[in-house]
Amino acid sequence: MVEVRPDHTASGAGQELALLLRAWWEAAADESGRKPTQESLARRVGVNQTTLSRYFNPAHASNAPKDIVRALHATLAAPPDDLSAALALAETAAGVPAPLEPPSPFPGAPAQPAPPAPAPNAPKPPRSLWRAALVAAVTTGIALASWALLADRRLPETHDRPVAAARGPVATARWPLVRLGEKSSLTWTIQRLLRADGRHVKADGIFGPETRRHVIAFQRTRGLQPDGKVGERTWPMLVRPVASGAKGPEVEAVQDLLDRAGLPADITGVYTTGTLRAVSDFQTRRGLPPTGTVDTPTWRALTASVPRP
Fold first, then answer.
1. pLDDT means per 10 residues in the chain (309 residues)?
2. Cα–Cα distance between 6 and 60 in angstroms, integer?
3. pTM score of the predicted model
4. How many CB atoms lie within 10 A of CB 99?
5. I need a surface site. Which of 86, 89, 124, 192 has the fewest CB within 10 A?
6. Are 218 and 210 in contact (CB under 8 A)?
7. Residue 73 CA to chain centroid, in angstroms?
8. Going along the chain, which residue ranges are E strands?
9. Dihedral angle at the C-alpha atoms of 243, 245, 247, 252, nearest 10 degrees?
């Protein structure tokens, strides 16, 4: 049975449900380590691949309804005790409220109310008033932009600060800090990269004591401080170049991160032409050279784009 943390919020339940469904899928691998593809699994439960990908992704608000949860549980032969917990999470996650107002254009700035609609046949204000209003609007915009910039500078530059996944250059993106107790795709990434290094660690997305022991052993072989945390010094040693034709758990890690970045991909462990296109597309969006090879800057951009739990 997969342990699920109690979380009575709708968004938290949605994340836990996605992690649980993905754990079922990971555990459905045969003796050779091959899992059902998302495409075939989607057909069997009656949804399309993109929808199924979102159900497995805690970064999306679209969570699986109860009938899909039951279908996945049966199709993947998941532990019987997991079903009641999954259905409870699905019921809680279904209550995610829609936003009541659009977000503010500046991070951290208060949302601005919509201007009232003009009355019918209202007289137009003099041109001087239009000019004064325009100057006031520009001045307010500059002031808000300056305020947002100053507020951003006051934030501490720590590894725990999430890095925005916006388009453009990723020179300022930082490696995320992943430690004991985290449940996320970043933990899956670390476990798969450890497996690519020849270490027999279970890839379940849970950064538990076993994963920490393997991280410490890896750090010792690389001359790093053996603190069991994966941060800016350990990530560059852990990742490895992945190019067309590659096979193995490191390719699974790339495909999983692409899927969570909004580029649906089957996690097959084989670097296909579809994976190549997805990597090139991701690199273009992030302002990187679209080589199709997952080098260290691309790994950093992929890991930095994953929402944190």
1. 53 77 74 72 81 76 78 84 83 61 42 50 53 55 49 38 41 84 94 96 94 96 95 96 95 94 88 94 94 96 86
2. 19
3. 0.51
4. 7
5. 124
6. no
7. 23
8. none
9. 50
